[in-house]
Design goal:
Blueprint (H helix, E strand, L loop, with lengths): L19 H12 L4 H24 L4 H29 L6 H21 L6 H23 L12 H17 L7 H28 L7
Length: 219
């Protein structure tokens, strides 16, 4: 994402970031001059594609399983892009003043596209999709405001981006494997995301306030 190097407290803690395969692949891309900003854009395109695939589960019911599967795969591509854009930026030591924009804006577009897509999917609820999309953006807003206010960015859950995308992926795969057994799995996933985002926003606000008051975020 060609972003300035983040301090440890400003980067989402991702276990995969320390995996050998991830380090080798990010070094490989950095060595070939892959632009981190373009990885961020590719992740956004994958998010838009995932949202479109989820919508198609309702528009083309005869091929719904394939659309569910494509949606799940593109969600994972989006997450991989989110993982590698920062790693490549650091590995290649390429930083720019607009890096933070490439880090944040495509993520919000992806979140909205995927959650609205899930709301418009077969057996789902579009109103819940809208609410979930708004909730996801608000959770990210609270995280960013922690930094703006002078504290750290808070990445705590229980419904941060990785957990939201995990639920979308699980719901999609359930619709692929056992569509008759879970006809409204997408709607249930959105309901859990909305509830989890509400809890997450409250937790983040509480932890940010404690830090700004000079306390500890530990609960």
């Amino acid at each position: 994402m060609m972003a300035p190097k983040h301090a440890p407290g400003e980067r989402r803690p991702i276990r995969s970031r320390d995996a050998g395969w991830a380090r080798r692949f990010s070094a490989w891309m950095a060595g070939r001059g892959v632009n981190p900003n373009m990885i961020s854009i590719a992740g956004m395109l994958a998010g838009l594609g995932a949202g479109g695939a989820l919508v198609m589960t309702a528009q083309a019911p005869d091929q719904a399983r394939w659309w569910w599967l494509l949606g799940a795969l593109l969600v994972q591509v989006r997450l991989l892009a989110n993982l590698f854009d920062g790693m490549v930026a650091i590995a290649s030591d390429r930083a720019s003043a607009v890096g933070e924009l490439y880090n944040e804006v495509p993520d919000r577009v992806s979140d909205v596209a995927i959650l609205l897509g899930l709301g418009a999917a077969a057996g789902s609820n579009l109103h819940l999709g809208y609410i979930a999309a708004c909730a996801a953006v608000f959770v990210a807003y609270v995280r960013a405001m922690g930094k703006v206010a002078g504290g750290d960015q808070e990445f705590c859950g229980p419904m941060a981006k990785p957990q939201r995308m995990f639920l979308v992926t699980v719901a999609s795969l359930c619709a692929v494997v056992a569509p008759a057994a879970c006809p409204r799995v997408a709607e249930w996933a959105l309901a859990i995301i909305v509830a989890g985002c509400a809890i997450t926003a409250i937790r983040r606000l509480s932890r940010i306030a404690k830090i700004l008051k000079g306390g500890s975020r530990d609960e």
